[in-house]
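Lab channel / #folding
Pinned by the channel admin:
"Please post every new chain as: sequence first, then the structure tokens as a reply. Keep commentary short and put observations after the output so the thread stays searchable."

First post following the new format, from NK:
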Amino acid sequence: MSHSASDDNLLARLAHGAGDNDPWAVVPTTEPVHDTGPSPTVIEDEDEIEAAGRGGAGRSSGDGDDIHSILRRVTNMLGDQSGGQPTTETNESDGGAFVPLEPAGFTEAGLNATQVEALALKYLLARGSALGRDIADQIKLPFRPVTELLHQLKSEHLVVFKAAAAMNDFEYVLTDLGCERARRYSAHCTYFGAAPVPLEDYCRSVTAQSLNHLQPTATDLERAFADLLLNKSILSRLGPAINSGRGLFLYGAPGNGKTSIAERITQAFGEYIWIPRALVIDGELVRLFDPGSHVEAPVSENGSLVKDRRIDQRWVRIQRPTIIVGGELTMDSLEVTSNVNTGISEAPIQLKSNCGTLVIDDFGRQAMRTDALLNRWIVPLEKRVDFLNLPNGKKVQVPFDQLIIFSTNLEPRDLVDDAFLRRIPYKINVADPSEEEFRELFRRMADALEIPFKQEVLDYTVKEHYDRAGRPFRCCHPRDLLFQIRNRCRYEKIPAEMSEANIDFAVENYFAVM
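Reply from TO:
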């Protein structure tokens, strides 16, 4: 193929970029996630562009195809100059290397046109009418493939244009035929939120963001537990247990901070992860993102994370999850649950806690039998995969990738057998604080509650209400006794004060039946 000198100049300018206002700078160069073919060749200089053009001269395709090939290569070269456009981007604050990038189309998103059609038609049925961009924003897919689908639905007489809108957009409304089809879709499942992510893509994200890739150091633990007063021996035992990423027992007397320790362990790992808003598993839609369990951490548009890249809006960035369940835990919580009225399924707690921490608080006091829970999880704890029963009767394999913490006031050997204890390699006794630690806790809590600290009153408390009474120290006692004092002073409308009279009042209330 031959081309003019002006073509060479144009390609040279494209290859070297044209500054901040260069429209080619925003051309997406991300490789499709589901593309299994070979990666395109990256062109290093203008001579290679000419060689590419000459190499295409002998093909049966026309000159237009060769120009398209050259421009595609130039696009890849521009992407390489900026460090490449991988499907996932490394970011240290996310504790790993996974950032989901926007798919170019439905196939790359792991979806088919029928799945997207169902979401769009159900949304229009609920709204009455909507702009094409509103529909794309609702189902969290790029505007171009969505609007192409809407035009196809118009040709099938399922939607019509109600009015024109800015930027080549239209306001769409359902026809009678479209309403009928939308109702059929809704009868199966009423969901019309973010388009789901295939299970395979989710599994890859869990692998990329797994706790097993992270090895928290002593500095990380000190940062995570900075607001707690912990014995150094406990920290030295917690470190290897947390690094294992497997599971541990926290046991000991009530009130010594087992739950507080468990809540902060996740902070020793990377701060954020990405999870899909919803999954599609063997045709079943399963909602994963749970505002009650997950804390969303939106990406700043001005941050270095997004740069010129576009994030796949079907995913949401959250703080590494710490999910705590107690006596309310049932066997249903460990399985996919389906609402028969809406057709929407909810992910189990172990799926929601992947790449984070799952705390079974007050273990042994659940409504379900202890052996039932152990039998349910004995294989996942060993193999790091779980098997879920779907509402359609099928069973699927999913990742089981979290640090599981069993917190209990009871002796572990009284709750479980040796086979299960072997799969929980770390058992840490959270013992009573020493007198020195107890006194330091009292000082810290007095400062936190803005109650002037008095050493002589603390000496009186230890002597009269602990030494003489034979009462053991507990980590929660300073906080609870000082709360009693503060509340009494508020009621009497006097300044909060550490006094012997106030301490006696607090002890009488707090330890009345203890």
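NK: The CA atoms of residues 266 and 357 lie 6 Å apart.
TO: also worth noting, The chain has 19 helices and 17 strands.
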